[in-house]
């Protein structure tokens, strides 16, 4: 079954067509990767999917309903969560408090009630703390709960970001370069965690430069080059495509 269906989307920044008439779909329960050289439009694509940018043309359907044109919080509430290429954790907050922020997109009382300490927020706060602890436990980082988030290692901060996205109880996760800046062991750890997330029934769309990670965990791969989709296939087929090889040999930092 198709969970996310992207049809003919385009996005222009002034004179630059950053996404050109891109279509693809993501099957429920699968891991799909988006790869391509720097500047190919991968983050722009994620910003379109999560509602941070509006497409100039095309449609995006999630669970069979159009989501393009909806604000980010509504898309998140429907079950589409994301992480960012550049880590965005709150400093002066503990790891678990950062994870709890993720729960608030789904909470009944909502983020504002939580901040204002309205009556209903008390009980809910406890539930949210418990849920955040469960997610951290699932990812093997429960022992970091009380540490100041930004004092932790880069790999640990990336895992906290993943925890925060999972705390929203998503149907689908968008991961923008989750292994960027990680060493080989940390990359292997993240790969293992992404597979566990998928095994929990959460569909994953991942942007990643680390080819061995992408080839190992993805069911399908979309290749973008200068905003255009040049391939969309299973990993083994992608590795053999002359167009894809040309794009990768032609660049320094993929
Ligand atoms: N907000 C923006 N305004 C103008 N240009 C942008 C903006 N965001 C991205 N771009 C440009 O769009 C192109 C695609 O960028 P991006 O989506 O970040 O690529 P990738 O994530 O594949 O490296 C780049 O040329 C980038 O400079
Ligand atoms: Mg990017």
Could you describe the 3D structure shown?
The strands form two sheets. This protein has a six-stranded mixed β-sheet with strand order 6-7-8-3-9-10, sandwiched between helices. Strands 2-1-4-5 form a four-stranded antiparallel β-sheet, with helices on one face. α3 packs parallel to α6, α4 crosses α5 and α5 packs across α6. The chain has two domains: 164 residues, P-loop containing nucleotide triphosphate hydrolases (Rossmann fold, 3-Layer(aba) Sandwich); 81 residues, no CATH class. It has ten helices and ten strands. β4 and β5 form a beta hairpin. It has 254 residues and is of the alpha/beta class. 38% of the residues lie in helices and 24% in strands. The structure holds adenosine-5'-diphosphate and magnesium ion. The site of magnesium ion has 3 residues, from α1. The site of adenosine-5'-diphosphate (ADP) has 11 residues, from β2 and α1.
Produce a short descriptive summary.
The protein has ten helices and ten strands. The chain is α/β, with parallel strands linked by helices.
CATH structural architecture of the largest domain: 3-Layer(aba) Sandwich
Heterogens: adenosine-5'-diphosphate, magnesium ion
Estimate the helix proportion, in percent.
Answer: 25-40%
Number of domains: 2
Tell me the series of helices and strands, N- to C-terminal. Answer: EEEHEEHEHHHHEHEHEEHH
Tell me what portion of residues adopts beta-strand conformation. Answer: 15-25%
The number of distinct helices, counting runs of at least 4 residues, comes to: 10
CATH topology name of the largest domain, in short, is Rossmann fold
**Can you tell me the CATH class of the largest domain?**
Alpha Beta
Overall pLDDT metric? 90
Note poorly predicted spans: none
User: Strand count, sense and closure of the main sheet?
Assistant: 6 strands, mixed
Strand order of the largest sheet: 6-7-8-3-9-10
Coarse structural class:
alpha/beta
Terminal Cα separation, in Å? 32 Å
Q: How many strand elements?
A: 10
């Amino acid at each position: 079954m198709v969970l996310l269906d992207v049809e003919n989307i385009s996005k222009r920044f002034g004179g630059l067509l950053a996404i050109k008439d891109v279509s693809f779909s993501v099957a429920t329960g699968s891991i799909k990767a988006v790869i391509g050289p720097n500047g190919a439009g991968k983050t722009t694509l994620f910003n379109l999917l999560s509602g941070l940018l509006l497409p100039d043309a095309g449609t995006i359907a999630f669970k069979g309903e159009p989501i393009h044109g909806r604000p980010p919080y509504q898309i998140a509430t429907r079950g589409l969560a994301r992480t960012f290429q550049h880590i965005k954790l709150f400093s002066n907050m503990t790891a678990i408090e950062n994870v709890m922020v993720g729960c608030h997109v789904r909470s009944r009382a909502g983020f504002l009630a939580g901040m204002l300490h309205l009556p209903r927020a008390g009980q809910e706060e406890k539930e949210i703390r418990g849920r955040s602890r469960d997610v951290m436990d699932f990812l093997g980082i429960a022992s970091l709960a009380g540490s100041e988030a930004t004092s932790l290692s880069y790999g640990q901060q990336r895992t906290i970001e993943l925890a925060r996205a999972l705390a929203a109880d998503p149907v689908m996760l968008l991961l923008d370069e989750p292994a960027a800046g990680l060493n080989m062991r940390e990359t292997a750890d993240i790969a293992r965690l992404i597979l566990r997330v998928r095994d929990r029934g959460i569909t994953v769309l991942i942007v990643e430069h680390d080819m061995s990670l992408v080839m190992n965990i993805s069911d399908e791969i979309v290749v973008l080059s200068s905003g255009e989709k040049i391939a969309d296939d299973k990993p083994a087929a992608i590795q053999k495509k002359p167009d894809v090889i040309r794009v990768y040999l032609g660049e320094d930092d993929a």
